[in-house]
Amino acid sequence: MRVKFHPEARAELRGAKRWYRDRSPLAAVAFAQMMEEAVATIAAAPLRYPAGEFDTREYIFPRRFPYTVVYRIRTTDVVIVAIAHQSREPGYWHNR
C-alpha cells in the first residue's frame, strides 16, 4: 500500500530528525533508517500491528528510539497521523 504522512506527522518527523542530528550524526542516521524500515514494514503489512485508539494502528520502534508510528488504514493507502514520542500525552493526535 501507498503510505502518506499527515502534515503534522511530517513536522514531528522533521523535529525528531533535527533533535538527533543536533546531538549525534550517527544517531540521526540510525533514526532515519529505523523510520524507513517502519514505513516499508507498514506498507507491506498494515494489518500486522495492533489496533489503537481512534481507528488507528501502532508500530512501536523495536529498539533504541522511544517513538510510535500511529497510522490509519484507508481504502487505497495508509496515513501516518503521528510520529509520537512515547513520553507525550497518549492520543494527542486523535483529531488529525
Give a quick summary of the entry.
The protein is α+β, with helices and mostly antiparallel strands. It contains 2 helices and 4 strands.
Summarize the structure in words.
With 96 residues, the protein is an alpha+beta fold. It has a single domain (2-85), classed as RelE-like (YaeB-like fold), CATH 3.30.2310.20. Helix content is 39%, strand content 25%. It contains two helices and four strands. A four-stranded mixed sheet has the order 1-4-3-2. The longest helix has 20 residues, at 25-44. It is globular and about 40 Å long. The two termini are 20 Å apart.
Counting DSSP H or I runs of 4 or more residues, the number of helices is 2
CATH architecture heading? 2-Layer Sandwich
Number of individual domains: 1
> Sheet with the most strands?
4 strands, mixed
Within the CATH hierarchy, at the fold level, what is the topology?
YaeB-like fold
* Share in β-strands: 25-35%
Share in helix: 25-40%
Rg to the nearest angstrom?
Answer: 13 Å
Q: What is the N-to-C order of secondary-structure elements (H for helix, E for strand)?
A: EHHEEE
The beta-strand count equals 4
Note the quaternary state here: single chain
Strand order of the largest sheet: 1-4-3-2
By CATH reckoning, the class would read Alpha Beta
Structural class: alpha+beta
State the distance separating the first and last CA atoms.
Answer: 20 Å
